[in-house]
Specification:
292 residues, mainly beta, seven-stranded mixed sheet, four-stranded antiparallel sheet, 6 helices, 14% helix, 39% strand
Length: 292
């Protein structure tokens, strides 16, 4: 059993593990993790053992599972719980709910037992920017929209995908997904491109490699996240190729691009992603999310 263990990496000293549950020092430390690619890389490496031990927890079924998310898989323990600052949270994605109690109170056991009717348990929606609302003194989802706060609601969840689509008779298949995930304490805008080769096609040069392009505009939900982001990207998806110019047999390509990964949600999204595999061919397999 892991108890009171500080993560090995010095740059993650603000996180402890107690009985396989992550405990963050405060809200700002948690936010700093999400805003730093280097800290995130260290986080994934230093908590990989928790993901293996708790791999049955987060509704993991397969690549198309609605509730699978790499960050949440390692953030939440076997009861979908995490402690951040003075609060312990339980995330209930199927019911779009976030439950919060004061850290180290006897109410944490009620969260484990799913006894959410107990007095003192605060209930929010996964739509809510929960950390910000707690800082503003809320003890649950706002009953009416407060235009001065701009928290809660915002853009709805999106999940636009193609199923694992085979190419008969080769058995090769591809999978694409554009998602906006809302979990109350975590929000993510991303897209995913997955190709699996059973019979390798001929790759004549790098220009025939699969690629993705995206154009994005997105804006944070709360007052502290009022910056609007604009970006464009053209990503060539290089794969393993033999000296004869063939894709290695049984090779696969798995590419994920994360555009927004914060504790606050988005109130504006305009994202178009094109996926192309010239040697298949798939031309301009486009996915679009719009919320203004």
């Amino acid at each position: 059993m892991i108890s009171n263990e500080i993560l090995i990496s010095d740059d993650l000293a603000f996180i402890k593990i107690e009985n396989k549950k992550l405990i963050f020092k405060d809200f700002d430390s948690y936010r700093s993790l999400l805003e730093s690619p280097s800290l995130l890389e260290s986080f994934y490496g230093n908590t990989a053992h928790l993901r293996q031990e708790n791999k049955q927890k987060y509704f993991r079924v397969n690549i198309e599972d609605d509730y699978t998310n790499e960050f949440l898989d390692q953030l939440l323990d076997n009861n979908q719980m995490v402690t951040i600052g003075d609060f312990t949270f339980r995330i209930d994605m199927p019911n779009k709910s976030v439950f919060a109690v004061t850290k180290n109170s006897n109410l944490e056991n009620s969260l484990i037992q799913k006894d959410f009717s107990v007095k003192g348990i605060m209930k929010f929606s996964t739509d809510d920017d929960v950390l910000y609302l707690l800082e503003e003194g809320f003890s649950g989802s706002p009953k009416t929209e407060n235009s001065s706060i701009f928290c809660g609601g915002g853009c709805g969840s999106y999940d636009l995908e193609t199923a694992a689509t085979p190419f008969v008779p080769t058995g090769n298949y591809y999978y694409t997904r554009v998602r906006y995930v809302k979990a109350g304490i975590y929000f993510e805008l991303s897209y995913h491109f997955y190709i699996y080769w059973v019979i390798a096609p001929l790759i004549l040069n790098t220009q025939n490699q699969p690629y993705s392009t995206h154009i994005a505009i997105y804006q944070g939900n709360c007052r502290r996240s009022d910056l609007t982001n604009h970006e464009q990207n053209n990503q060539r998806l290089l794969m393993s190729v033999t000296s004869a110019g063939l894709v290695n047999f049984s090779s696969f390509y798995n590419y994920k691009k994360t555009l927004w990964q914060r504790s606050e949600g988005l109130r504006r999204i305009s994202l178009t992603v094109n996926f192309d595999v010239p040697v298949i061919p798939i031309n301009a397999n486009s996915r679009t999310i719009t919320c203004f």
